[in-house]
Amino acid sequence: MTEPFPNPGTPVTALPEPAERGDRPPPARFAYDAHTWKEIAHLLANLPVSLAGFVYTVTMLFTGVGLTVTVIGFPLLALGLMGSRLLGRMERARARKLLGVRVEEPSRLPVRGPDGFWPQLWMAVKDPVGWRTVLYELIRLPWGILTFVVTLTGLFVLWPVLPFIVRGLANADRAMVRGLLSPSDELERRIAELESDRGVVVDTAAADLRRIERDLHDGAQARLVNLAMGLGLAKEKLLEDPDAAASMVDEAHGEVKLALQELRDLARGIHPAVLTDRGLDAALSSVASRCTVPVKVTVDLDERPAAAIEGIAYFTVSELLQNVSKHSRARSAAVDVWRSEGRLLIQVWDDGRGGASLDGGTGMRGLADRLGAVDGLFVVESPEGGPTTVTAELPWRDRSGALAEGPGRAKRASKEASVRGRG
User: Fold this and answer.
1) Among the CATH numbers 3.40.1360, 3.40.50, 1.20.5, 3.30.160, which is that of 203-270?
2) What ranges do the domains of the chain cover?
3) Long-range contacts of 358-366 (CB under 8 A, 24+ apart)
4) Is the pTM for the entire model greater than 0.85?
5) Is the pLDDT of residue 117 over 50?
6) Which residues of 180-207 are buried (b: 16+ CB within 10 A; e: fewer)?
7) Domain 274-420 in this protein, CATH class
8) In whole angstroms, what is the distance from residue 318 CA to residue 392 CA?
9) Element (H or E) spanning 381, and its range?
10) Strands (DSSP E) along 219-359, which ranges?
């Protein structure tokens, strides 16, 4: 974005606010001001700068591309493109200083690739920022010659109208910098989202593994250790005191039953068998039957989504119903699941006391993070006094792994949630 510059002679105390001045340079005038001289300096510097960039780019391309038939070709090309990134950074700095163009810096290439040297090398070779800078440097040499000749000649021949000529040439420079050296806003935003989501997925997986390890260590594992000890003592007493041995075997039998129950509960927490065998309708009905509040479950799906999406939907509803049982003081609740335009929508409602929010604890925030990591959406509407309506939205993927197409998410989800809401 071009920085605003005040007209010469305007007192500092009389400058209007930025919102009033706008984001464009002042109009070109016959009188030369500081901004015009900066543009002239930029246009005169175009020739040496573009010449150096052109020589570097042509040398890098001929060397790197020409040697791609050998082992060192691609590494040289990757290093050359990294150097082009540095040239682009210097050009952005020059345009920022002399033209007032504010262009965000592109994201850096990762220092260390996730899969080793060759994936990292390929990432550098296909870097779009580097290739756009290469294109910029190739077209800059003829442009640099033109701007240098016109500006230098104008200083001696066309100086009365030179500010207007300089402004037109400088605006073309601004357009080149914005068009070829600025990052793609949408791409950069998406990269940042994916980096954040990757961290959430890793943290969630680590937390789940720690939970499973803790449950096994404190529950089933401890019972199995007691069972082994009890059976060992029973074996020793089998000949000396058969009655005591039989009593120990009975106790061990009870321990086996409890260990099996704990293992079933743990397996249900990882991925319940009813979900795998019968789908969301039966699995959510099973979860609702364990809730302390009467729950009406409505699942309106013509087909089953992908297993991963189905699992996330199941655990989302399961945790929300646990919150209803523990915190809501509700008398009734309902769960609706349906598909709309390539999205799986979930709504959990209760008539409890309300007051739930994403900032109220780690449970809701954790659900929002988990759904966000798979490009989902999580909305909580819970005024004080109730009722509470939680709407979750997931991308629909069918069992073959294909991702269904669908329009924008947030507005449509809120609209459908309000249609299905219960006041």
Assistant:
1) 1.20.5
2) 12-183, 203-270, 274-420
3) 363/319, 363/323, 364/323, 366/204
4) no
5) yes
6) bbbbeeeeeeeeeeeeebeebeeeeeee
7) alpha beta
8) 13
9) strand 377-381
10) 295-300, 333-340, 343-350
